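Tutorial, part two.
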Amino acid sequence: MANKLEEARRIINEVDAQMAELFVKRMRAAELVFEHKKEFGLPILDQKREDAVIERNAALIEDDVLKGYYIDYLKHTMSVSRAYQYRMQNGLSVAYSGVEGAFAHIAAGRIFPGGSRIPYGDFRSAYQAVVDGACDVAVLPIENSYAGEVAQTMDLIFSGTLFINGIYELPVHQNLLGVKGAKAEEIKTVLSHPQALSQCHDYMMQRGMAAKESTNTAVAAKEVAEQNDPTLGAIASLETAELYGLSVLEANINKSNENTTRFAVLSKVRANSPALTSTVLMLTVKHEAGSLANAISIIGRYHFNMTALRSRPMRKHSWQYYFYIEIDGSVQSENGQNMLKELSHVCDELKVAGTFAPHAEI
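Running the prediction step on this input gives:
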């Protein structure tokens, strides 16, 4: 029985290797198809052509049961080919959580200036869009220097299948916005996200302004523009002011000028570039005394400098935690591989969540 299983796996491995080569060859042909369609202004989807290809190729399969699965396989392959052509047509599709003008929208635009930014209602939806293939990458916040880690993003990275391919720092400057002709001293009520209101609390208290919470800074700015009330203000970015036709009544009103949000770029493929010199590890340790200390000791013994260590509770197990660790260096080296091997002996779960270039400010 074991010999049959080993033989089956050998055949599958051989076929998979051949299919990988053929997949690349097919996608190169798809590039030529796209160039032709672009030149003559033809749509990417040609349903009649796809139906004819499916009918012709399905006839090559004699087994009626397998034929149905093969048709599904062809449809999926064509869907992947179309997605690739759409990417060539529209650029990289970037999922983010929020609305146009929000800080995530700004970050996505600065990281991928030629990409198409696609908004989603929450972090999970933006993340899932990449998993499902609707978008190429997601840009999600992982930490704010004022408010701390973004727990939901951390949890998605730990439990999901996407990799961190970059971490970028976006300095957050909060500004008081109002309609054209409004004056800062006339503003009585200020709309914004609770975090932005908190950051600018001292400024508003000194001027006797009332705070009103909104779902995010861009939504607040949009509401101010729509109401056209000179006594109503919003706290948001300069980009948002321009987007909704508002005036900047006073700039940089947040309490701390050190307010920075770190955004992670998440992709299906883990990048492996010499420029990416920092690594994110996520792990759980055995429920034994000293297990976390052992894991940290192993990282140090292999001369990796640990730059961040955070713990998060595990949803499925009360009073148990996973750990998010950032280290300087790549684990692709022999030294890194040896470290991972030794870590695996003291960890229940160990995941290389991705690599990034440190200190990448946008």
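DSSP finds twelve helices and 16 strands in the chain. In part three we will examine how such features are distributed along the chain.
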